[in-house]
Every structure is written in structure tokens, then in C-alpha cells.
Amino acid sequence: MNEMDEIFKQIKKYSKIIIHRHQRPDPDAIGSQIGLAEILRASFPYKTIHVVGKHILGFDWIGEMDEIDNAEFDDALVIVVDTANAPRIDDRRFDQGAELIKIDHHPNDEPFGDIMWVEPEASSSSELIYDFYEKFSDELTLPKHAAHALLAGIIGDTGRYLYPATTSHTMRVVAGLMDLGADNAAIGQHENELSLPVARLSAYVYENLTILDHGAAYLKLTKDVLAKFDLKEAGTSGVVPIPGKIKDVKLWAIFVQQDDGTYRVRLRSKTDPINEVAKLHDGGGHPLASGAKAKDEAEINQIISELDQLTKDSSKGEN
């Protein structure tokens, strides 16, 4: 019995199922969470299905979280989607259920859970949820709301189908979701829209991005800068892809200052893997999209140096 079969067996076994995702969610975290929940609600109307985590106002259009008491975790199956390691799970009650399942598409560097289904080659966790539905489609129903949420996740994690993880299988999944009622154009437009503060911050990114000789780029967003644009740290996600639109940029880091003075580091690359650099700085993630932390200016400079060295080594290989 493979992981998908075992997960389906446990889903059918439990009368209560609680679905978690990671902190600071993106469309794939919310989309895979809501998508799975709506599939299970439509397929097993007699079961109690909850989605938990911090309420994120900007993702209401995908779905909203439930507020539940601790007692709901008694004898419940807990499923965590799109989360590479346990410390990042939103709602820390995830370990209070009877059994824990991990469904994810990040490298499984920090395993957790009684059952783990991890496919790093997948474009998104939302793609995996559709694959799960398709495998058991004789017994599962995928309603329009679930299709909407899953497509939002795929569009978000593929960068509007621009990232290398977008495969022919991904596009077949997209077609399947559109056939079930998901509006690709409307979802894409929704994810492409910027608030006025983020639009103004985008201009700041273009104006202040530092690009080194071999294609590494970086930008530091201090609390003072964010205050100038009337933004909090969470509002910076919309500008992360911007340096990748510049021809001369091969990989980049955006350092975002936190309330305690440390920095959250968003790392992206067009071709050269950057997740090993992330692991050196309390982070990790995909080869071309990772996150890390920097405690001070010295660590910021160290990360910049390591990224610069990556591009230098890559340039040597091209010659």
C-alpha cells in the first residue's frame, strides 16, 4: 500500500479531520488546505472537517479559517499540507490529534508525521491534492469551490506558469480544474493585482536593487522603509518576483526586517539552486525558491557573498 492509499484509508476511518498549513501562507498553502477540505466535505458530508490557522484577510477570496476548541482535536485525524517542517505549522495544536499526515511538495529535509506523502517534483501542493482526488475519483467529489482554491494554489506557486516546476502534468491538472468550473483568467487577474502601497514599493525595488557583476542581486527592506509605504512585513510578498524580471539578474535575495531587528530572507533564482545557501542560515525550501534568516548586518553580508560566489561559479561553468 503506497502513501496515497494509506492516507485515503485514514480519511475514511476518522469522523473528524483537521487540516493545517504553514505560517505566513501563500496561495498554495491556503489553496491546498481549502481545496482538500472542500473535497472531503462534499465527499463525506457526515464527517466534521475543519481548516485552521491564522486568518489572513487577503486570502478570503480563496477561503476562510475555522475557529475550534481544543476538544475538537480529540480522536481527530490531522493533515498538514504544504509545510516542510513542523516548526512552521500554523496552529500549534497540530500534534494533539490521534494521527498526523504530511502532504507536501517541498524537499523532505525535516520529516514529521505518521504518514508522509512528499513529491518535490510537483509544482505545488495543490497539484498533489488534485492528483489525490483523481486517483480516488470514484469515491471523491471535487466541487467548484475546491477547483477554484486548487487552481489559485497552482497559479501562485508556478508564478503564472513561468517557473520550471510547471510541467505538462501541471497543465493537465489545470485543464481538469477548469473543466470543473475554476476560472483561470479571473484567478490569475486576482493574483496579479497589487495594492497601491505594494505598487509604490515595487518602484522602490526597481530603483534600489543592487545587482552585482555576475548576476546576484539584493535589496534590504528595513522597518523604516516599510513604514514609509504603509506596509507590514507580510505585505512584501508581492514584490519578491520583481528582480527576476530584470535580464541581468540570475538570483536574488530580499532582506525584510522584523520587529525584533532580525531579517527574514526571501531567496529566488532563475537557474542556480539556492536552497543550500538557505540551509546555512536557518532556512530551506525549493532549489529555486527558498527562505532563510539573518540575525544582523554581518549575516546579511555573508549571504550576499555566498550568493555572489554562486553566480561566479556558474559563470565559470558557462565559459
What structural keywords apply?
319 residues, alpha/beta, inorganic pyrophosphatase (n-terminal core), Diaminopimelate Epimerase, Chain A, domain 1, 6-stranded mixed beta sheet, 5-stranded parallel beta sheet, 10 helices, 11 strands, nucleic acid binding, DHH family protein, Oligoribo/pAp-PDE_c-di-AMP_PDE
Structure description:
By secondary structure, the protein is α/β, with parallel strands linked by helices. The protein folds into two domains: 3-192, inorganic pyrophosphatase (n-terminal core); 197-318, Diaminopimelate Epimerase, Chain A, domain 1 (Roll), CATH 3.10.310.30. Helix content is 38%, strand content 17%. The chain is built from ten helices and eleven strands. The protein has helices at residues 3-13, 27-43, 125-135, 144-157, 168-179, 184-192, 196-208, 223-228, 275-279, 297-318; strands at 16-20, 48-51, 77-81, 99-104, 115-118, 210-211, 216-221, 251-257, 263-269, 284-285, 289-294. Strands 6-7-8-9-11-10 form a six-stranded mixed beta sheet. A five-stranded parallel beta sheet has the order 2-1-3-4-5, with helices on one face. Strand 8 and strand 9 form a beta hairpin. Helix 2 (27-43) runs antiparallel to helix 4 (144-157). The longest helix has 22 residues, at 297-318. It starts with a helix and ends with a helix.
Summarize the helices and strands and which ones pair or pack.
Elements: H1 3-13, E1 16-20, H2 27-43, E2 48-51, E3 77-81, E4 99-104, E5 115-118, H3 125-135, H4 144-157, H5 168-179, H6 184-192, H7 196-208, E6 210-211, E7 216-221, H8 223-228, E8 251-257, E9 263-269, H9 275-279, E10 284-285, E11 289-294, H10 297-318
Parallel strand pairs: 1-2, 1-3, 3-4, 4-5, 7-8
Antiparallel strand pairs: 6-7, 8-9, 9-11, 10-11
Helix pairs in contact: 2-3, 2-4, 3-4, 4-5, 4-6
